[in-house]
Amino acid sequence: MVKYNIYLFRHGQTKFNREHRFTGWRESKLTALGTKQARIVARKLKNKKIDVAFQSKLSRSKDTLKEVLKFHPECRRIIIDNKIIERDYGDLDGMSHEEFIKKIGNQELDLLRHGDAIENLSKENMKKVEKFLGEEEFKLIHRGYDVPPPNGESFADVEKRVSKFIIFLKNYIKKNKVNVAISAHGNSIRLFRKIMEKKSKSEVVKWKIPYDTYFHYVVDA
């Protein structure tokens, strides 16, 4: 039995990431730091064999992959698959974390409908929200999993589409006998890892997904 490799990585930092905004499905270009992070991933994968690569429709996924594939002339196909796109934050897309906190303070949002959106706040902003809510209520929202932001996706929603992608991916690898690279997004990676590593919901929502490394999985074919 032959083993084939999956190399999964997050796009580099974007302008919205730097500004602490909920990016979701909106376009936001890589910053200079984001390009540097993409090149770090590229160097780490330089000596790996990549036959096929996957990206989402968003430029941050494509531009990061472009840096990686500079070292891989053997890569013969690039596939766009939006089952690996970022979580849709719905009404929160484009909103800064500070604006989110202000709305909480003004009680303009139903807190329990924002599920784990707080997971994406900086540590400083998390402390502000925790102070406002009280420790126990903060934990309830912070660890949320199944409730989406208004007009957006919950982690459970993202897990469903990522699960379909993984089923497709394994079949594709076995049929075509290829090593693949995947230029994905923070929350799609979060759920990809959950499925592949058989982790619990409580573990998943605590993860920070780095910009400058990759995750490696093996498929037997």
SSE blueprint and pairings:
Blueprint: E1 3-10, H1 15-18, H2 32-44, E2 52-55, H3 59-69, E3 77-80, H4 97-105, H5 123-133, H6 135-142, H7 155-176, E4 180-184, H8 186-197, H9 201-204, E5 214-220
Parallel strand pairs: 1-4, 2-3, 2-4
Antiparallel strand pairs: 1-5
Q: What are its keywords?
A:
9 helices; Rossmann fold; five-stranded mixed sheet; globular; 2 domains; alpha/beta; 221 residues; 43% helix
General description of the model:
The longest helix is centred in the last third of the chain and has 22 residues, at 155-176. The protein is built from 9 helices and 5 strands; from the N terminus they run βααβαβααααβααβ. The radius of gyration is 18 Å and the shape is globular. The chain has 2 domains: 1-86, 3-Layer(aba) Sandwich (Rossmann fold); 96-154 and 197-209, no CATH class. It has a 5-stranded mixed sheet with strand order 3-2-4-1-5. The chain has 221 residues and is of the alpha/beta class.
Low-confidence stretches: 136-143
Helix amount: 40-55%
CATH architecture name of the largest domain: 3-Layer(aba) Sandwich
CA radius of gyration is 18 Å
Would you identify the CATH H-level superfamily of the largest domain?
Phosphoglycerate mutase-like
SSE string, helix = H, strand = E?
EHHEHEHHHHEHHE
CATH topology of the largest domain: Rossmann fold
Q: Which structural category fits the helices and strands?
A: alpha/beta
* Head-to-tail CA distance between termini: 6 Å
List the total number of helices: 9
Largest sheet geometry: 5 strands, mixed
Determine the oligomeric state from the structure.
single chain
Instruction: Just give the CATH class of the largest domain.
Output: Alpha Beta
Within the largest sheet, what's the order of strands?
A: 3-2-4-1-5
The global form is globular
Q: How many β-strand stretches?
A: 5
Percentage beta strand: 5-15%
Number of domains: 2
Mean pLDDT: 87
